[in-house]
Design goal:
Number of strands: 14
Distance between the termini: 23 Å
Strand content: 25-35%
Order of helices and strands: EHEEEHEEEEHHEEEEEE
Number of helices: 4
Length: about 250
C-alpha cells in the first residue's frame, strides 16, 4: 500500500531552535539532520520502551516529524508535555508524503533506514509505484509501526533500530537513554526481530512454538519469509505457528 497523507501524519515544529528541543528527547542525534538528510528516530518511555518511531525532516527553518497517523495524536501530546518553556511551537499540518524505489523525483530524500527502502518525498502526492513494501521489509527485517512495533511493549534494541540508523549511542541524554545504553553495553540480547523462512501462513501475532514452549510471535509475511520476534534460546528448526512451519535464519542486512 502506498504510504500517503492518509496513513502518515505530519507534525511541524517551529521556533527559535526546534532541533535543540528534540535533541534531549529522541534516540537519534539531531545534529546529523540536513536539508536532504532526514533521520529515523524514536521516542521512548523513561523505562526505555518504544512509544513511536518517525522520520525527522529539515523543512526550511522548521522541522517535520513524519509519523504513522494512529500514533500522531499521542506523540503530539507527549511532545507538548515536554515542551514546557521551550521556544517551540507544535502543529499538525497537511503535507502529503510519497515514497518509492525507482528513480527519485526532484526534492525526494533517501529513506535513512536502508538503501533498499528508496526515497520519501514531502509536499507532493505521487501515485503508488508498485513497490512491494512488505517484501522489502521482510527481506531486510524492518519493523513497522503498530505491526511489529507496539507502544509500551517494544525495546528498540530488540526491534533492531540501531541497525536501521535509528539510535545514536554517542549523543548523550534523551528520554529512556539510560536503559537503552545499559542494554547495549552490558547485556546480550536474548530476543528480538529476525527474518525467518515460512512454509504456509498464519495470522499476525500467532505464537511460534518450539515443541511445547513458546519461542516467539509471527508478524509480516511475504514470499516464503516473515518477520518474527524470537527468543533466541528457544529458536530451532521446524517450529510451528498454527499450521505454518517456521525455520530461523539470520536476518538480512
Amino acid at each position: 500500500m502506498q504510504e500517503d497523507v492518509v496513513t502518515r501524519a505530519i507534525i511541524k515544529l517551529t521556533g527559535t531552535d526546534p532541533a535543540t528541543f528534540l535533541q534531549g528527547l529522541v534516540t537519534n542525534d539531531i545534529r546529523r539532520l540536513g536539508p536532504q538528510a532526514p533521520l529515523y528516530a524514536a521516542l521512548l518511555t523513561p523505562q526505555g520502551k518504544y512509544l513511536a518511531d518517525f522520520f525527522i525532516v529539515s523543512w526550511g527553518d522548521d522541522i517535520l516529524i513524519d509519523v504513522a497517523a494512529p500514533l500522531a495524536d499521542d506523540l503530539f501530546k507527549r511532545l507538548s508535555m515536554y515542551k514546557l518553556r521551550s521556544p517551540v511551537t507544535l502543529e499538525h499540518v497537511d503535507i502529503p508524503v510519497s515514497r518509492g524505489t525507482g528513480t527519485a523525483p526532484e526534492g525526494a530524500m533517501p529513506d535513512p533506514r536502508h538503501p533498499a527502502l528508496g526515497w520519501r518525498l514531502y509536499g507532493t502526492a505521487l501515485p503508488d509505484d508498485g513497490t512491494d513494501w512488505d517484501a522489502l521489509r521482510v527481506a531486510h527485517c524492518v519493523p513497522e509501526s503498530l505491526i511489529e512495533l507496539v507502544p509500551g511493549e517494544t525495546f528498540v534494541l530488540e526491534a533492531g533500530l540501531p541497525r536501521l540508523n535509528g539510535v545514536d549511542f554517542r549523543k548523550g541524554c534523551y528520554v529512556g537513554q539510560e536503559v537503552t545504553a545499559r542494554m547495549h553495553h552490558k547485556t546480550d540480547l536474548r530476543k528480538g526481530f529476525v527474518t525467518v523462512s515460512i512454509s504456509g501462513s498464519a495470522p499476525v501475532g500467532t505464537e511460534i512454538m518450539a515443541g511445547a514452549k513458546v519461542a516467539g510471535q509471527l508478524f509480516t509475511q511475504s514470499g516464503g519469509r516473515a518477520i518474527a520476534f524470537l527468543r533466541f534460546d528457544r529458536a530451532q528448526p521446524a517450529m510451528q505457528a498454527d499450521s505454518a512451519v517456521i525455520d530461523w535464519y539470520q536476518a538480512a542486512s
